[in-house]
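New to this. Please check this fold:
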Amino acid sequence: MDNSRAVSSNQTERHPDLLVKLLNHLNTDYQRPIPDVAEKIFADTKATIAEIERPLIFDSGCGVGLSTEILARQHPDHWIIGIDQSEHRLTKQRKNPSPENMLLIRANCVDFWRLALTDGWKLDKHYLLFPNPWPKKHHLQRRWHGHPVFPDMINLKGQLELRTNWHMYAWEMQTVLEYMNFPTSEVETYLPVAEYLTPFEQKYHESGQTLYRLTADLS
């Protein structure tokens, strides 16, 4: 059995500045410059998916791409775009050949999301599978729901699915989405069935941690 430790945090309730941060980000344009290399990666991706028109699914923070591969097999009529900034993770050898509707992109999600939104992309689904929880209280702005890019992520639309091993992360995400009047599920516990979607999911489950899932309709 894996002995991965559960998330430890000095935060026991939803962050008191959660909605303050959200409102600030909703009312402020995110001005961080986008690097030229990110523009090139996005342009190359756009050219590839233009060859065959399909609905889009993002697997953001895809790590080694196992989840991207599984999602591509589950949705053969979609483009499944796995995004991660780690070359080491993305180039890790997988057992199976990649489905032809799967793309692994080395990019910062912040840049790729903003470029996709500017170009008018709309998603069918968006997966956030075990994002870094940034559990310290002062890390709120590094969690996706506390990050300045959050409004851009939301405006990509689609069906959002978040999986995490930290209840607080899902609870805060649910809070901000409900505040914005998006329908969400309850934060539910779940047990993986059939196959693990990510190595993190397997590691946390085998170490006895509780897994949480939140879904939301951003369309």
